[in-house]
């Protein structure tokens, strides 16, 4: 079977779409490969002086987002798409080089302060580069194409995440090559991640040629000069406000589940090795479910059920899952819920959510969207981390709060689905 025929078996593909689809998937693969090379380094630095510092690091991340968004909006307001996207990635690549040199040259490798700065920076980096990626995808593909193809494109990112984590584990432990053992210190992964970012830039350039993106700022379908236009549109658009509500409730409930996962795993397993094995097993099954769904079901589910129904899948699952956890807080219930929720988020919910931006204009895609994907997202994380203490003071069980938030999320998803259904798809 030829590669083209195999691709058509996996994806609902129309004539002439394959080259752009493969470049898009490779682009996402490289972005997440580069991030997952560095994620273990970030996690180690985040808990270097105790896990109790994580809420404060999330607070610092939110403040960094507040500073980064106006700077990115200024860049978007001055340059066309085919220029500001590569410059964004190359700016982050230069940051990686600066961190590499600082860790190498400063006394004690910069101490905990530099490690915390790196944790915050990488959290900003991850959300921004992915948001810019999906902004471009929602720009160059139509809504009809997005329903068919975004699942396969998302699969590129899943494979990149798996490969990046595997390469990091292999290189830091040591890989035997003949009689030699190749072992890389964690900080050197910054240089490898820089290379993947530059390769992602080359993918952007290829896609810019395929889709004939212009080279003039403020041209047709290019963002305008208004620095605060993205925030103004959020303040005046009910549609964007519903996307904000959907994102906020998703991240709050994700954090609630993360906290419950830590509590249940700590109670179910006595030692660090068995807990690590349990987390690894969860990640394995999440990846298996994500890949299987992306390959065989995502495009068909979104095309067959429609955006409105697909947006309700995760809130309904969360209502049932948090309710079950409230009644039976066991490892088995938590593991099943976590695997289903994370797997379906990556495979179905995220591609469907990105399709929401396709009918919108460049201001919403490149100015409003990054703010929602970064500041609103991290705002939900922050609320999710600090809220349990307030609930405990009010004698409100976390399970009850999680069920209530899931109910609100379902309401927001239904309202958003109705709004999305009333918009005319871009042909």
CATH-wise, what's the superfamily? Answer: MFS general substrate transporter like domains
The general outline is globular
Extended strand count: 2
SS class: mainly alpha
In helices, the fraction of residues equals over 70%
- Beta-strand share of residues: under 5%
> Could you spell the SSE succession in H and E letters?
HHHHHHEEHHHHHHHHHH
Alpha-carbon Rg, integer: 21 Å
The CATH class label is: Mainly Alpha
How many strands, what sense, and barrel or not for the largest sheet? 2 strands, antiparallel
Mean pLDDT: 86
Q: Top keywords for this entry?
A:
mainly alpha, Growth Hormone, Chain: A, two-stranded antiparallel sheet, globular
What does this structure look like?
By secondary structure, this protein is mainly alpha-helical. It has one domain: MFS general substrate transporter like domains (Growth Hormone, Chain: A, Up-down Bundle), CATH 1.20.1250.20. It has 16 helices and two strands. It has helices at residues 3-10, 18-46, 54-78, 81-105, 111-140, 143-173, 189-210, 229-236, 238-268, 272-296, 298-305, 307-311, 313-327, 331-355, 362-393, 398-422, and strands spanning 175-177, 180-182. Strands 1-2 form a two-stranded antiparallel sheet. The longest helix is centred in the C-terminal third of the chain and has 32 residues, at 362-393. The two termini are 32 Å apart. The model has no long low-confidence stretch (mean pLDDT 86).
């Amino acid at each position: 079977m030829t590669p083209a025929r195999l691709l058509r078996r996996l994806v609902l593909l129309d004539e002439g779409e394959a080259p752009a689809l493969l470049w898009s998937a490779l682009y996402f693969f490289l972005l997440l490969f580069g991030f997952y090379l560095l994620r273990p380094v970030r996690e180690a630095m985040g808990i270097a002086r105790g896990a109790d510092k994580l809420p404060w690091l999330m607070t610092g991340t939110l403040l960094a987002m507040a500073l980064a968004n106006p700077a990115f909006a200024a860049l978007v307001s001055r340059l066309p798409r085919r220029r500001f996207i590569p410059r964004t990635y190359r700016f982050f690549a230069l940051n990686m080089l600066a961190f590499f040199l600082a860790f190498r040259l400063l006394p004690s490798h910069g101490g905990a302060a530099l490690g915390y700065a790196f944790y915050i920076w990488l959290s900003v980096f991850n959300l921004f580069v992915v948001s810019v990626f999906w902004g471009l995808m929602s720009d160059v593909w139509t809504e009809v194409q997005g329903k068919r193809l975004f699942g396969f494109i998302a699969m590129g990112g899943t494979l990149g995440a798996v490969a990046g984590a595997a390469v990091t584990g292999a290189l830091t432990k040591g890989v035997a090559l003949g009689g030699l053992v190749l072992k890389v210190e964690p900080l050197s992964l910054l240089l490898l991640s820089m290379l993947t970012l530059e390769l992602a830039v080359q993918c952007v350039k290829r896609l810019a040629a395929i889709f004939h993106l212009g080279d003039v700022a403020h041209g047709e379908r290019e963002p305008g000069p208004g620095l605060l236009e993205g925030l103004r549109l959020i303040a005046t658009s009910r549609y964007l406000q519903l996307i904000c509500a959907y994102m906020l409730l998703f991240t709050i409930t994700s954090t609630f589940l993360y906290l419950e996962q830590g509590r249940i795993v700590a109670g179910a397993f006595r030692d660090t090795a068995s807990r690590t094995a349990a987390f690894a097993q969860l990640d394995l099954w999440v990846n298996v479910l994500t890949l299987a769904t992306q390959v065989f079901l995502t495009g068909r589910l979104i095309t067959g059920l429609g955006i409105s129904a697909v947006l309700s899948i995760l809130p309904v699952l969360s209502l049932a899952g948090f309710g079950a956890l409230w009644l039976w807080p066991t490892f088995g219930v938590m593991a099943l819920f976590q695997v289903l929720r994370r797997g379906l988020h990556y495979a179905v919910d995220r591609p469907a959510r990105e399709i929401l931006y396709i009918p919108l204009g460049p201001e919403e895609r490149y100015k409003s969207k990054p703010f929602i994907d970064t500041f609103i997202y991290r705002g939900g994380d922050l609320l999710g981390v600090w809220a349990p203490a307030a609930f405990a003071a009010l004698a409100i069980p976390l399970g009850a709060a999680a069920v209530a938030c899931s109910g609100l999320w379902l309401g927001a998803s239904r309202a958003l689905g109705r709004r999305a259904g009333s918009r005319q798809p871009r042909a």
